[in-house]
Amino acid sequence: MTIHEAIRMGTHRLELSDVPDAAYDAATMLAHLLGEETLAMRLGGEREVAPDVLARYEAMLERRGMREPLQYILGEAPFMGLTFAVEPGVLIPRFDTETLCEEAIRVIKRRCARVLDIGTGSGALAVSIAKLCPDAAVTAVDVSGKALEVAAGNAKRNGVSVNFVRSDCFSALAGEKFDLIVSNPPYIDAQEMRTLMREVKYEPDLALYGGRDGLDFYRKISKEAPEHLRRGGTLLFEIGWRQKDAVSALVEQHVGEAYALKDLGGNWRVVGAKLRGKTGGTP
């Protein structure tokens, strides 16, 4: 079977399972197995696919047909121009979160020295910040040992130093203060959890479910953040697209005047606030 034939076969099989972007996924998985860029692979599409590669490809198609996320099948996901290892039990980095990362970098370049990433997951935020802001001292926490193991591997993979700590939010950080606290917390509410895409249901509930109204972690972090922010420090959250007003109210109650940013899709994605005080106001 040639490369072109294998892609057509894979696309057809995925379409039968109603997989979104079936042609893209079929080509991407085969290119991954061949160790080639997708375009280069297609240009040589009359080449025969070795039987062992074809067998592995069919196994990947089977998994994707069951709607397992493509990133878990490939074992990696892109974020901020870097590549991150991902596996079941760890949240997959999303492009939407790059809006949060970009805002964190903007804040860091103005004044930041110490950064805390709460709920680091694969380490996408913490590692990207450490890579792009090498003068920042980055600490990242997660309650999941599996997530911290994967995140530490991603720090090594991308050549950065991050202090990883197993902690439920601030529980293991008594007395520590930071110039920037950044978090992409679980924020899916109870109703939405019941209607998630099949792919998302493969990801850990621990990293998705934010309580009945999706705001549990925003309440906890907003309330406790002032004790861990240096004077003039900033708190930044990723939010669900309908949560701007609710999260803004929480950070204004506990931290300072809120501001919000939209992602490239035009949805509200980030809420931030600078710790109120003599240096108060938005960044």
Description:
- The protein contains eleven helices and nine strands.
- With 283 residues, the chain is of the alpha/beta class.
- The chain has helices at 3-16, 22-34, 38-43, 51-65, 70-74, 98-111, 124-132, 145-157, 190-193, 216-224, 244-254; strands spanning 76-79, 82-85, 114-118, 137-142, 163-166, 178-183, 229-238, 258-262, 268-274.
- Helix 1 crosses helix 2, helix 6 (98-111) crosses helix 7 and helix 10 (216-224) runs parallel beside helix 11.
- The protein has a seven-stranded mixed β-sheet, sandwiched between helices. It has a two-stranded antiparallel sheet with strand order 1-2.
- The longest helix has 15 residues, at 51-65.
- It folds into two domains: 3-67, Helicase, Ruva Protein, domain 3 (Orthogonal Bundle), CATH 1.10.8; 89-274, Vaccinia Virus protein VP39 (Rossmann fold).
- The model is unreliable at 278-283 (pLDDT under 50).
- Helix content is 40%, strand content 18%.
